[in-house]
Structure formats: C-alpha cells, structure tokens
Amino acid sequence: MRIATWxxxxxxxxxxxxxxxxxxxxxxxxxxxxxxxxxxxVQTDKPYYALGExxxxxxxxxxxxxLMPSNLSNTFYVDLLNPDGQVVAxxxxxxxxxxxxxxxxxxxQWPQGRYQIRAYTQYMRNFDxxxxxxxxxxxxxxxxxxxxxxxxxxFTLQFAPEGGDIVVGLPCRIGIKAVDQxxxxxxxxxxxxxxxxxxxxxxxxxxxxxxxxxxxxxPDRKYFAELEYQGKILRKELPxxxxxxxxxxxxxxxxxxxxxxxxxxxxxxxxxxFMLGQMRGEVFWSQACQAGTDEQWKMPIDSLPEGxxxxxxxxxxxxxxxxxxxxxENPLVTHSASLKIISGSPALPHQKINLAFELxxxxxxxxxxxxxxxxxxQAAVQWMPYGSDIRSYLxxxxxxxGRVENPVYFFDKANSDRYQLLDIxxxxxxxxxxxxxxxxxDTLPDLxxxxxxxxxxxxxxxxxxxxxxxxxxxxxxxxxNGPKPVIMPYSxxxxxxxxxxxxxxxxxxxxxxxxxxxxxxxxxxxKKKNELVVEDYGFSIWMDKPDAFPLKEAEHNTVxxxxxxxxxxxxxxRQMIKADxxxxxxxxxxxxxxxxxTRRKEAPLPNGVPSLPYGTPQHRIxxxxxxxLPNTSSSFDLITTQVSGVRRNGSSLNIRGAASFVADDKPLxxxxxxEVGEAQAASVRLGEIAFIDVLxxxxxxxIYGSRGANGVVSIYTRRDGSVGRSSNDAGKEAGTQGKGSxxxxxxxxxxxxxxxxxxxxxxxxxxxLRTTLHWQPVLNFNELGQSTFxxxxxxxPTGFDVIVQGISEKGYPIMVKLSLPGNTK
Length: 825
Fold this sequence. Notes:
With 825 residues, the chain is mostly beta strands. A hairpin with a 6-residue loop joins β35 and β36.
C-alpha cells in the first residue's frame, strides 16, 4: 500500500488529470456563479409562547460560501404558519449589514398548537424547499389543556455504506440510523447475518439512533439485519453487494489532518481517477490517483474554514464514483466569546443586572459582529440543551439533508463521543446544496424568482386589453404615492415583461399606467392611412404572483413537553395576561356591540381589542372611522390634528387641560395597556393602530395615579390581523384595474417595535412575572470587541438564562449561553 502526499492538482505532472479536474472545477465555478446560494437563520426570544404575547426575533441573511452578508438580496420575508400550515403573519424585512429584527403579535383568537416560523428570500424559492429556514414554535392558550400527541410506534432503520456501495472483497464501514416518526433517534440492537444464516457481526445504536459496524462482504452472498423491537423480530436486507466497484473511506485520525482512502476491484484499478474536496461549492483540494487498487492521502485542514466538506472520487472521464461527507472542525479559525455578569444580584427581585459580552478571533484579536441577546426565566422557559442555534444551523444543518437531532451536541467539546457520532451522521445524510449530476450535465434550474437587491421587485407583463396571451410593447409609468411621490418610466419590449425595484418604508399606494410607445405614436401620425397602425387600443397590466409555497415537514419535539418549566410558564402567562387585560382568554370579548363617540362618527370598537382598564374616554381616534388620513406617518402628528388641546413639544406631546403639579410635562404613554417610552409610542406605525385614546382630565386618568397627571396617550394595535391605512388613500382599492392602468397597495418594510420591560429605578407595583425579561436585537461593540447590556429582575428571580447569538464580522457564527442562579426559596 502506498501513501501519497497531499499536493494541489496544479502541481500534478499528469496533464490529462489536470485537464479533467479543470473541466470539473470550471463546471462547479460556473454553477456557483449562476446559482450562488443564500442562508437565513432566525433567533427568537424564547422557544414557546402564550396567546396574546409577542414573538421577538432577529434574522441573519448570508451568502453560503463565506457566511458574510448576502450581496444577492437586501429584502427577505419571515412568515408565521399556524398548525394547519396557513400563513397568519408576514414580516417584510430589509437587511442592514446582513440582518434585521422584528416582532409578531400573537392574536388571542388564534388556535393553540405547533406553529412554524419560516424565513426566505424570493431568490431562495428557486431551489429545493429544504433550503428554506423553518423551525417550530409552540403557542398555548393558557386556559386550555395542551394535548400532547401520542407517540407513534413506527420507526425507520437506515443502513448507509460509507462512500455509497458495498463491494465484494473490500472492507466497508456501514452507518446505521434508527429514528421514530418524529425523526428522533431510538435504541436498537441486533446482528448482521448472511443468507446462509451465518452471523457476521453484532450492532447497537448509540445516541440519537446512530451506530456503525464493519463488514467484509463475500461473493454471491446477501446480508440482513435482524433485531428485536417491542417484542417483534424484524429482518431487513442490507443494500445489494456489488461484484466490483469502488469504496471511499474518510476519517480524521488526528486534529491536524484528514485521511482519505480510495479502493477498487475494477479492472485497471484507480489509474486515471482523481479525488476532489469541496466545501459550500468551493474546491479546496484535488489529487490524482496512480495505478493500483488502494491509495491513501493525508490532507491538512489548517487552511480550511469550519463546516461540512464533501469528498468525491471521480473516474478518468469526470464521472462521480463515490462520495463522503465529513465535518471540518478547525481550531485555527474558531472564534472565542465570553459572557459574564459585571454587576447586580440575580437572586433579588427588581435588581439591575449588567452583563458584558466579549468576542475575539482565533488569534485573540478583538472583533465585532451582528449579535442579539435574550434573557429568559429559568423556572418558566426551558431551552432544549442541544437544540439548534446559529452555529449548528449555518455550519451543519443547512448543508445536509434531513433532520439533525440535537445538533448542538456535536459542537459541545465536553462530549467525548461527539465527533464519532457526527462522523456516522454524515455517513447517513447527503449533501443538500447540489448534486454532481446537475453540475456535470448542466441540468440547472430555471430562475423563476429574481433576487431583490434594491428593494421589492415588482414584475409583470403588458398585454392587449383583456387578452392575457397577447403580449404587447408599451410605455409604462409607475407612480408611488407618499410624502415624496415618485414617478418611474419603463419601456416594455416585445416580450411584454416589466420589472421595477422599489424601496418602500411603509405600505404605499402605487399606480401603473400603460400607454402606446412613443415610437408607435409617431408612426401613427406619419402613417395615418396605413392600416398597420392601430390608433386606439387598450392594455391590460398583469402583476406576477408567487406560486404557492410548498410546506416542509414540521420538526416536532423541539420542547420537552413533560418539563416542569412548561406548567410554570403557563401559570405565569395566565397571571400576566389577566393583569394586563383584566380577563382571561377562554372566550376573547371583541366588544363588537359597543359604540363610542368620536370626533367624526360613531363606530364599533375594532375586533379583537381587549377590555380597557379605564372607562370610556371623551377623545378616541378610531383609525377605520376616519374618512382620510393626514399626510403623515407619525401617530403623534395624527393626534394633534384629531384632538383639540394637544400639541407637539419637540419629540413628545403636551396635553393642555391635564392637571399637573410636576416639573415634567410629558404624558404617560401606553401601547396595548403596557407603559412605554415616548420613542416606542411614536414608532407604532399607523397601519398597525386600531384606535388611540387620549385621557385629558383627572377622572379619566385616575387609575394611573400621579403617572397620569400630565394626561395619558393610550394606543391599541389591531388584534384581528387586519392592516390599516398609512397614508391618504381614500377611494382606492387594492388591485383595481382600469383601462391600461392598475392601482394597488404594496406592503413596505416592517418597522420593529421596541421591546418593553419595566424599570425599577422608581417604585412600580405592577405584577411582574415576565418569562422574557430582556430582548436586545442589536449589540453595540467597542474597539476591544466588547458589548455591555442589562436588565431588571422580576418579582420572582428564580434564575435566568442569557443567550447571545450572531455572526462575527469575519463570517463566524457564535452562540454563548450564561445561566445565572436565582433564589429558589
């Protein structure tokens, strides 16, 4: 057996080898240029919720190769799907430096169950739906029992020969994966027998249903696995043994290198064949095979990034023969991060806790990045110990097919068996980004969805009036309504297609108008007697609509339903909801029959708004009752135009008539019954508002005591899923089509609300059983790679989990968790 040294193909003296590898390399590079890949990951503030709560989240959008901010798209979408797979909320987000954050209010009338959060760009929809980010969120109605589905008894047993085939006369490692119907590993054991009944070896799965055994197959024999499961004797045939062929073994005997072993029983041996290694579509290693039937290489990994590497053995003609995935863990590129408490006592209620996060690269140099932090109550919120995080998803899960159970287990250095198990996992799960057949035969997908680099992409076609198949040239004009109206011309060619890139900060009315091309109009004048010119014809404008989104299979069991944290969470959420709304959610009361006097007309309260802690105010602005909206996007400006005696005072409001004896003349601001700062109140978009109450006199605001001495501005957002108006669009209906024109409303980018948490710098008697104590979607770093943030403990400080996730400026994903002990008495 000869051990070959590791050399690049560019140094190889074999000209034909160099030509073949270059051809394969060119095809990979062409594929990557034509179809670059993107990845998305979403972090939520906690893994499960109660009806009426808010999902706070941050998403990172990267290109797949380097995990740097994507330069393909700056627009992406986050959907929330209910247990029936229907989209109940969507957030259109604009990536700034590769990330964006937002929130979704969970409406009280939604059903409880397993929801899915899905994130994607339009460009990502061109490829396998398995590449779309999706994860499960459990949502409870705290007044109803949660029915846990009974476990199913069926299971799947998979045998995967390393490299692809079992070949007569060649030793073979065979991976085992045994999972139940939810994709969770199960324990099985048994024996491998041949068709004559002879026992070849025994096998037993380890963690996550993973196991492995070795087999030396003999000619003309079949092999079977026999096992006992739940009292039944089961028998399953192994993959067919090939009379001749190739095998590939890849393993890591030392930290510094990977060993690659190629073997064959084919006539001519390995002569002319070659090895190629790629990671995320970039070739990092190739080597020619010499004459012989057995060859090995040692490949150093010091220059490789971390992630899933694909090794392939090719024939002399460039056809793939064997394939093996392996995970590269390289300490020379690994970043380090630390999270520690710097002040405060987590065991005391209403205490300010300050924390410090520090980030350094593999050379101990400070680095910055895009990170988010969440703090949850240990007694109520249970994070799965090895559930998915940003590192496991971007480096592992997003590049292999199928579900990966407890993926963070493979990244925890405290687990001595993690690399062995990960090696078996990658033996049983294939590469999901592309197949060699697609690349080598140029059978590449059509790009139905273009990338949105400069905002929303508005596409469609122009036809002759009411003739959908009769494409037409035209001069098209797009008019965008708003504070600064925009007019954008477009010359539609013979294919009838048009495309606009529009950057919309808010839901905006748009108008498309088609007319004869100027060249045709000139032709009509010069050739008026010529019947070739039609002087008066109309157009129809047809907007493209995305195809229905294929549903991915839900990944269940992301939360231990038997954990005591679940019941604590339900109890705390029930008490907090009751304290905030004065009622429970068994039968939400929409107050549909109540009528309130407004300045313009009487109207019922919007559907889904909870009961109010104060009485009927004298001044209420119901958004849907206004015949028009002033030309503003500010709720504060709207109030000044609708309620007499209220004026702007810098960034705040001043309510005349409020009896104040304090130096500060700012009113109390409430959003959905919770006290907020003026910045958060001012940031609520008009389209999200159901109504605004302004409490001017002492009687109306008496429930708030001295805090309401300067009046109260109480904003309630829509709870029925509807979207209100955000500009003066009276009389225009979405999608109205006229002769040669089309008017509609296009949703803009979502503006995230500010996370509210009480501060205890002054006394506050309000019940505080928060399960998410702090959410900070943006961490600011100094030049030393350090960031600080803080939060206040709640009424019952029983311990806290602090989780920080994100991506460094060098494209390295990181998750750090710090558990702070509390007072368990």
